[in-house]
Amino acid sequence: MQNEACYFFAADKKYFPYACLAARRVLDVSGKTMPGVILQTGVGREDLDAATVLLGDDVAIVDMSRELEGFAFNTDRLGLAAYMRLFVDVLPAFLPYRSLVYADCDVLFNRSVADLAATPLNGALLAAHDEQQYYDPKYRARLPMKSGAPYFNSGVLVFNMEQVRGEGLLERTRRFAQERRDICLQHDQDALNVVFEGRWQTMDPRWNVMTNFNSQIPFAESFARHFSWGKPWWKPLGVEPEAQAIYREMARNTPWADRFDQSTTANRAQFLLKRFSRKFDGPLGFLTGKEKLRKRAHYNSRHSREVFGAQAAKGVIAGSFPERQIGLG
């Protein structure tokens, strides 16, 4: 009899501290409702010891260095660690589970991960639309996908492992990421979108609230906040003060505490300036003929949340030309 679900993060030595803090947040919000795992490679003893103090026995740390040997992925912007989640179908730590919840190291949960794991899975994958890709969907020309194919952000995912294993989807993703690494500019995210095309269902947008300088779901209403631009530990542009405070408190008794001591005043000013400049997207789009600016000017996070939220509630498979459904056609 398989267990229901497990959640996991993945990191190299650079991002391992933030994966640990992300896991600590899951424990603080969710308790011990689900087992957790951090996949890692190249992490030193000091950070591993700090992880044990912070997480205890509630989150397992799994070294994946050996599994990554011999794989030729695109590592121009990100290291091999970005591809670790593509191996969960063959890792012994995950064999007992029907579904797996994955989150990037820069995701902060505000709601129990068990609620996300309980989402009925009608496809092989549950993922959130990458709405910002719809401003300028160049991925459709770059990747071998159908006309109007939707695109998901892979920062928060739920894998239906029975279907994933049965169809060999992650094995195919690993192969595509190697054989077509020249076109996988978004690394494993591109490969996942190609292989899982037509097999993923829409996730409630509140589970993957990404930084957006013109319109964004408020932090207090997000189930999981994805810091896809500025990071709480590095140039926190767009990071909400309440989120920064959460990180600062979690890191207080760790070796990583000083990474969150920076003042947010300057970043807050930059954020407001960027938000103000986005108000001119419409006129600039008209004057320059840039379709991306015109689309961005019409984006409304509330409307998008309603549209994709309704799809998520019905468990529908993501359909063609989703940008038209949210007014960006």
Q: CATH top level? A: Alpha Beta
Radius of gyration: 19 Å
Topology pattern, helix = H, strand = E: EHEHEHEEHEHEHHHEEEHHHHHH
Strand residues, percent? 15-25%
Largest sheet: 7 strands, mixed
Arithmetic mean pLDDT: 93
| Count of runs of 4 or more consecutive helical residues | 14
Number of strands: 10
What can you see in these coordinates?
Helices cover 37% and strands 16% of the residues. By secondary structure, the chain is an alpha/beta fold. The protein has one domain (3-210, 301-325): Spore Coat Polysaccharide Biosynthesis Protein SpsA, Chain A (Alpha-Beta Complex). It has a seven-stranded mixed β-sheet, with helices on both faces. A three-stranded mixed β-sheet has the order 5-10-9. α1 (16-30) runs parallel beside α2 (45-55), α7 packs across α8 (188-195) and α11 packs antiparallel against α12. The chain is globular, with a radius of gyration of 19 Å. The N and C termini lie far apart (46 Å).
In summary, what is this structure?
The chain contains 14 helices and ten strands. By secondary structure, it is an alpha/beta fold.
Descriptive key words:
single chain; alpha/beta; Spore Coat Polysaccharide Biosynthesis Protein SpsA, Chain A; seven-stranded mixed beta sheet; 10 strands; 329 residues; globular
